[in-house]
Amino acid sequence: MILALLLAAAAPSLSPAEATMTRTVDAEYERSVALLKELVDQNSGTLNLPGVEAVGRTMRRELEALGFTVSWKPMARVKRAGHLIAVHRGAPGTKRLLLIGHLDTVFEADSPFQRFVRRGDEAEGPGAGDDKGGMVVMLAALRAMQAAGTLKAANIEIVLTGDEEDSGDPNAIARADLIAAGKRADAALDFEGLAVEDGRDMGSIARRSSNGWTLTTTGRTGHSSGIFSAPVGDGAAFELTRILQRFRQELPEPNLTFNVGLLAGGATAALDKDGVRATATGKSNIIPATAVARGDFRTLSEEQTARVRTRMAAIVAAHAPGTGATIVFEEGYPAMPPTPGNRALLDRLNAVNRDLALPQMAALDPLKRGAGDISFVAGDVDGLVGLGPSSRGDHAPGETVDLASMRRQAKRAAILMTRLSRERR
After folding, report:
1. Residue 318, class by beta-carbon neighbours within 10 Å (0-12 exposed, 13-18 middle, 19+ buried)?
2. Pick from 76, 84, 137, 234: CA 20 to 30 A from residue 190's CA?
3. So where are the chain's domains?
4. Interatomic CA distance for residues 328 and 143, integer angstroms
């Protein structure tokens, strides 16, 4: 008798509405794949503003059919296309959900990688996983809720940014609508890709920040025979590398990574206006007058970000005699720390996994997840990342999505959203 009770308690337990959702996701699988092809075949590189708007129109069509009120927020002020914002008003007094995704990809209009190619239950294409696959999962889950009758009472706001891969500047404008939505929400669900580790689906309750920096050093130029002498000093190039070496020796701590992505030095050295190309001139027998390096660092909390900035600035300030050194920090993505509230959301997702007879999802090491839009609301609302499909090779030609993973992700999302949306605030 006791064994029977234990087995009954451990058995999957879906309500009739939840069972309808799972059947709907399976029945509409090919429809979802066809929509993914439509989205992928429309280029929407961040700087292809008409392309981003076109993807936005497709998403508007799908969301309006589900009863959402949809608006487009232009972002010309930050030289980006804009954001799609969709609102579904449900029962008063129940939890409000914020769903996050993005319309753009890293593949611009001149990329040779442009088309959706299906191979069974996999497909490659620009943004097939990141994040057009995520948007398709979101829609599949919402359609399943509609079929089961659970969408009607749900309070849901969706923000699909048009510049997640290359945010407009400043973030105060580019992310104002997302931040405002986070303040209204009781839970945030991010539909970027599912993390898979050793064949197991993982839950993501944290994302690290992304912070840029540019280091510039100067020195007394002259004939190379005078290098290191008291009148001349070390020159700009040696001072740059000395400071970078101090970063390497003195900055390391848990959950922090830092990188030098670009550097140059010589009689002259400069970065282009976008900070992605460097030019330099000089000769082997001339002491460099200037050197420049650009990089990033990633942290797990805003407190860690502030601490690392302070340490980097102190190292730069202690430059060698006869040289100058300055560091400029660039606005980036904040951190999403692994809070108790985020862990509680993963517990709720794992309750869904149990009832779907799926394995439990452990929390992913945040070192294995990049920065993302949900971090802008992490200080205001509990969140969960990775509701999109599994994929590989993201951000590179050949990006490939596991189409079959869209099914289980849509089922998880539909049931989780239904359960959360029924709770009182």
Report:
1. exposed
2. 76
3. 9-207+336-421, 210-333
4. 47
